[in-house]
Amino acid sequence: MVVCGDDGLAHRLAAELRGxxxxxxTLVVPPDRRTARPPVVGRARAASAALFDxxxxxxxxxxxxxxxxxxxxxx
Length: 75
Fold this sequence. Notes:
- By secondary structure, this protein is mainly α.
- Helices cover 45% and strands 8% of the residues.
- The chain has helices at 8-19, 42-63; strands at residues 2-4, 26-28.
- Strands 1-2 form a two-stranded parallel ribbon.
């Protein structure tokens, strides 16, 4: 069972589900504003763009290298 929230009701519900009904409970709470790190966009975006370019280049490069009936062309 998943319980979302950081108020008293969410904590009480999670405790009751676990204690009374024996349910396995996951409590999902929002991140603390003081400890939450800002998302990394610069490097992560550049790395994903580079990977995407390599995948597209590999896919486009392999299109011209097939022979008849989809068999690899002889080199």
